[in-house]
Design brief:
This protein is of the alpha/beta class and about 350 residues long. The chain contains 10 helices and 14 strands. The chain has a 10-stranded mixed β-sheet with strand order 3-4-5-6-9-10-11-12-13-14, covered by helices on one side. Strands 1-2 form a two-stranded parallel ribbon. The longest helix has 19 residues. Bound molecules: S-adenosyl-L-homocysteine. S-adenosyl-L-homocysteine binds next to strand 10. Specifically methylates position 2 of adenine 2503 in 23S rRNA and position 2 of adenine 37 in tRNAs. GO terms for molecular function: 4 iron, 4 sulfur cluster binding; metal ion binding; rRNA (adenine(2503)-C2-)-methyltransferase activity; rRNA binding; tRNA (adenine(37)-C2)-methyltransferase activity; tRNA binding.
Length: about 350
């Protein structure tokens, strides 16, 4: 007989309390089990030591705990750790721990594969297989928090949704996971330490603003010229820069939170002064900063990092115009853990 038991972590606290009441128990029992599932990240009903044996058996008869499993962990020479994460249906995603002197950042996935088609990204080649559930996102964070405590002797400090997938195309589950991560019953982390990175889905950026999400927003811009952006990120045809700009203005008017633009400069694609000028102009619409990120080759030879002169030209032009710019070197390249390289090669 096929196992049709429900994933207990799909239940809200209220639903769990109601379940216990319907079983003739106290609603408080629901609270206790909820704490085991979320605060204490229990993997098995038998871990729930303050719950009676009979109740644990009753839970086993009705539910399963669908937990992720870190299948393979790779450590880079620069300290970066990549986890290949097996999901309950045997699909795999990847998440990355990025250590610096003072911080540990978790880079987590939101989808198996990706629904978008950025030409320079390894994940895009996988296509979207499914959205991750809130608990699958949350578990990646817990796994990295544990690794941070184990290997770096400190808790996780920041989270970026820059792993596999487009978080705003899995909006509800990502926001449910953020709720759990920030809630005192989960990890109690400040939403200010969480960054959602998007390729730019205007409608969902507005929704994020309307929902008063306190997280930070990063946008993978890569070009401020429609004709160029559409060739490297074809969905730009559907969500052109004008719509993106309008949604970002809306986001800022509601949240007063500065946006980060992620930007790669490629040889013969966006390395001219005209490209840099377009970026400067785009940066004037909403308070922002620019992260110039290094390109990590994905082996198809269509994209090449621009010369350092071109990157310097961008940096100078942005700085002359009073725009904050950082140049970010990638981490974890030796284990294919860098931006845009997550493609389940380790699985
Ligand atoms: N879909 C979201 C989050 C995942 S990608 C987004 O697009 O923002 C995380 C970051 O890695 C994005 O800024 C993306 O543009 C960048 N990226 C993708 N492929 C890359 C590559 N090959 N080298 C460097 N960065 C890459």
């Amino acid at each position: 007989m096929k196992d049709k038991k429900k994933d207990i972590r799909a239940l809200t606290k209220q639903q769990l309390q109601d379940f216990f009441v319907s079983e003739g128990d106290k609603s408080f029992r629901g609270t206790q089990v909820y704490e085991w599932l979320w605060n204490k990240a229990a993997h098995s009903f038998d871990d729930m030591t303050n719950i009676s044996k009979e109740t644990r058996q009753m839970l086993k008869d009705n539910f399963v705990i669908n937990h992720i499993r870190v299948d393979r962990m790779q450590r880079s020479s620069d300290g970066t750790i990549k986890n290949a994460v097996k999901l309950h249906d045997t699909l795999t995603v990847e998440s990355v721990l990025i250590p610096t002197k003072t911080r540990t950042t978790a880079c987590v996935s939101s989808q198996v594969g990706c629904s978008l088609d950025c030409q320079f990204c390894a994940t895009a080649k996988l296509k979207r297989m499914r959205n991750l559930n809130p608990d699958e996102i949350y578990d990646q964070v817990v796994a990295i928090d544990n690794e941070s405590r184990l290997y770096f002797d400190r808790p996780l400090s920041n989270i970026v949704f820059m792993g596999m997938g487009e978080p705003l195309m899995n909006y509800n589950n990502v926001m449910k996971a953020v709720d759990k991560i920030t809630s005192p019953e989960g990890l109690g982390m400040s939403p200010k330490r969480i960054t959602i990175s998007t390729s730019g889905v205007p409608k969902m950026i507005k929704k994020l603003a309307d929902d008063e999400a306190k997280i930070k927003l990063a946008v993978s811009l890569h070009s401020a010229r429609n004709e160029v952006r559409t060739t490297i990120m074809p969905f730009n045809e559907t969500f052109p820069l004008e719509d993106l700009r309008e949604s970002l203005e809306y986001w800022y008017s509601k949240t007063k939170s500065r946006i980060t633009y992620e930007y790669i400069v490629w040889k013969d694609i966006n390395d001219t002064r005209e490209d840099a000028q377009a970026l400067v102009k785009f940066c004037k619409y909403v308070p922002c900063k620019v992260n110039l990120i290094e390109y990590n080759p994905i082996d198809d030879g269509n994209f090449q990092q621009a010369t350092s002169q071109a990157t310097d030209m961008y940096q100078n032009m942005l700085e002359r115009n009073g725009i904050t710019v950082t140049v970010r070197r990638s981490r974890g390249k030796d284990i294919d853990a860098a931006c845009g390289q997550l493609a389940n090669k380790s699985a």
